[in-house]
Amino acid sequence: MPSEKMSLLLETRARSPHRIAELAKARTRRPALLGKGGRLFIVAADHPARGVLRIGQDPLAMANRFDLLERLCTALARPGVDGVLGTADILEDLLLLGALEGKVVIGSMNRGGVAGSAFELDDRFTGYDPPAVASMGFDGGKMLLRIDRSDPASVATMEACARAIDGLAERRLMAMVEPFMSRRVDGKVKNDLSPDATTHAVAIASGLGRTSAYTWLKVPVVDDMERVMATSTLPALLLGGEAGGDPDAAFERWRKALRLPTVRGLVVGRTLLYPPNDDVAGAVDTAAGLLPKEAS
Question: All domains of the chain, ordered by start, with CATH?
Fold first, then answer.
């Protein structure tokens, strides 16, 4: 059954939806994006809005919103966690639960590419836009940029991302771009995680928009990361993805990549929120311990 806080959340959503905007305006904001150590550790929770609910062999692991919120609140309360990335429904739930006080908050912007759909590579902006991010008092917006050289629709996503970068920069807000070179294999969209493909994705993403002053990259950890990350001077955050059956190996890959000069931190979701042993606090603490205390 929902806790007392969850019950209050449900009542507020049904009876007093205006409270969401009021709480956003009253929320205590962090004074700067980066902390004293110059690092950023963000927990990601925007997967459900694209229909991505699977964890391992369980196709609906992320479907229980009460369970997901409990895991997110646990993660956000751990030392070293700077903030959260999510869609409006999740961020507003966390706001109503009081979990966003003093945290960095990034709104997820394009969730139109529903996983497994015929239009998956049509990553339309169906979530936050720059004015909404600013009005909620959030710190930035995140966008997915998947480029399929054989799909003419990819250029529309590139253009939409460029306009979103411009809009966020005008408001001095972070534009977090997650780029991939992608293609369809047997009808399914696959991201090419080879070093060469990731290098091309980083190069393309870095050049979008009228200015790159507020652009950050969200990049996968791939082979030959030193060469890949030399492609751009933009600050970058490592994405987690799924750790598979060996989270320790994932942690070690993150540790090595975090030593690179442009890498400023982590944006990790499922790996930490649904660890194999179900110890969310332990997984988050392990990841937080990977972050160097001072910027390179």
Answer: 40-288 (3.20.20.70)
